[in-house]
Design brief:
The protein has one domain (10-226): Alpha/Beta hydrolase fold, catalytic domain (Rossmann fold, 3-Layer(aba) Sandwich), CATH 3.40.50.1820. Helices cover 37% and strands 15% of the residues. It has helices at 24-31, 48-59, 78-88, 90-103, 115-126, 168-175, 203-226; strands spanning 10-12, 36-40, 63-65, 109-113, 132-136, 154-161, 182-187.
Length: 239
């Protein structure tokens, strides 16, 4: 039975929609506070395409760390990549995420792609310092990762539509606990359309994903800068 869709979880009608009116640079220049990001790769590995995306986020002033669960190995075939991840095992993949979080103790944003969405979501649930979580190509009900969703985390989910690698019930299982999440669907795209290293790559859809990601990061930067340093945590509402 499909998990219930929460009425306040919003979905974008089209990858062409634009919802951001404030210039990114204006926010960054005013606050001077930049997100520090852990970016987790998909089943193909830490591909040149994902490395290039991390570099572009750094060019906008963010610190971006890219833990490599495959130790430098990349695989062209997605099925082979999934088999390789399975050979590593869920616990080992989760350990990679937690070791990266310990190594980079100021990180407050997590981004995961497909396979890496579990690692990103795990840290968002486990670490109070995480303010933002972006999941591209997957999501899980919180209990599948052994915990509860933290409602103060600003959550975005980006998925191709349809996507044979994404279970809608699992996404809805997270949305039930994260009613303020923003969901973007990309009709007609393949699973990993954001990565030029993937045969699914689509330049226009990838550019839109990146635009939305940068706007979201700018929003988190401004929200963190504005938040009083009281030790409490408040939900950061999307623009």
């Amino acid at each position: 039975m499909e998990a219930p869709k929460h009425p306040r979880a919003t979905r974008s009608p089209s990858p062409r929609s634009r919802t951001f009116g404030l210039a990114f640079a204006d926010i960054w220049d005013e606050t001077g506070h930049m997100a520090e990001i852990l970016l987790f790769h998909h089943a193909h590995g830490l591909t040149p395409g994902l490395r290039a995306l991390a570099d572009r986020l750094r060019a906008h002033g963010h610190s971006v760390y890219t833990p490599d669960a495959y130790g430098g190995k990349t695989l062209d075939d997605l099925d082979e990549g999934v088999k390789h991840a399975q050979s590593i095992g869920h616990d080992a993949m989760a350990d990679v995420a937690h070791r990266a979080a310990r190594a980079h103790r100021k990180t407050n944003v997590v981004i995961g792609f497909s396979l890496g969405t579990a690692q990103a979501q795990q840290l968002a649930q486990d670490l109070r310092r995480v303010r933002g979580c972006l999941l591209m190509g997957g999501a899980l009900p919180p209990q599948a990762l052994g915990g509860d969703w933290r409602h103060e985390v600003d959550l975005q989910i980006h998925v191709a539509d349809p996507d044979e690698w994404v279970d809608e019930e699992e996404i809805n299982g997270l949305l039930f606990h994260a009613p303020h999440a923003k969901v973007f669907t990309y009709p007609g795209q393949g699973h990993m359309f954001v990565d030029p290293s993937s045969p699914d790559y689509d330049a226009d859809a990838a550019a839109l994903f990146e635009e939305r990601t940068l706007a979201w990061l700018a929003h988190i930067d401004s929200a963190v800068e504005a938040a009083p340093d009281t030790g409490s945590h408040h939900t950061a509402h999307y623009l």
